[in-house]
Amino acid sequence: MTIKLIALDIDGTVVDGENNISPANEENIKKAINHGIKIALVTGRHRKGVRKVTEVLNLGPETALILNNGALIYWQGQIVWKDFLTEDEADGVIKFSTKIPGVATTIFKQEDVELHCNLPLDREWILDKLGVFEITPKKIAEKPEELTRENVAKIMLVTESGDKALEIYKIWPQKLSHLKRSRSYPYLCEINSSTCDKGRGLKMLCEKLGIAPEEVLAVGDGETDIPMLNYAKNAVFVRHSDDLPKLPPHVKVTPKGYHDKGVAWAIENYLKL
Known about the structure:
The protein has helices at about 25-35, 50-55, 85-95, 125-130, 160-170, 200-210, 225-230, 260-270, and strands at about 5-10, 40, 65, 70-75, 80, 105-110, 115, 140, 155-160, 180, 190, 215-220, 235, 250-255. By secondary structure, the chain is α/β, with parallel strands linked by helices. The protein has two domains: about 5-80 and about 195-270, 3-Layer(aba) Sandwich (Rossmann fold); about 85-190, Hypothetical Protein, Haloacid Dehalogenase-like Hydrolase, Chain: A, domain 2, CATH 3.30.1240.10. The protein has an eight-stranded mixed β-sheet, with helices on both faces. The two termini are about 15 Å apart. One of its GO terms (molecular function) is magnesium ion binding. This is HAD-superfamily hydrolase, subfamily IIB. Keywords: Hydrolase. One of its GO terms (cellular component) is cytosol.
């Protein structure tokens, strides 16, 4: 069956750790677009965080955006799907995370991001880290009470290490155990509603567009991408090391050395343009 849609994770997939797109990825994505194939950016980022990618790839406002791990879907510039945390859920996560030393709590709303940083974590270090993902907090809260609880798409906890992130999940409150918890990077804890993930977001988009899973090529590189790789019947996992997560059996893994051009490899192998 012909590929009609390419669903692309951004961080570690389309871009590298410095938010740059390799020439190979750029060339092949543009080639696919020129052949009439739709592109969907499926990311943990918020809307302002995809600007560089859309500009470099010449993606217009009609491009599908599945944001905050599937909590928000934009199609042709309009919101067509929301799956947010409830106010009580957001309040519970904030009250838990802001009591842990060395954790920065970031609140993702529809357009903006808010930040609360706990010592001994350095605020400037956190802001530099967030800047790589094109995140500039609109509000930096001195007190947890100042953080927004309404209309929260995602809460992301930033730590100084992967070990710290794992510790947080080990002490996670039972009353919040129904929420989706994942890590796009080892030092990040990403919290979404119980029904929200990239796979469901991609499914909702495809149903709206009338595109079957067999007509989708999905490319990702991390834990948060596995649901969308599972949904798409054509899927590629971009290898960054030999330590691979458990993947659905139909998912292909890029060869070693393709960490910055995995999208190009996927397009060349599945589309034969």
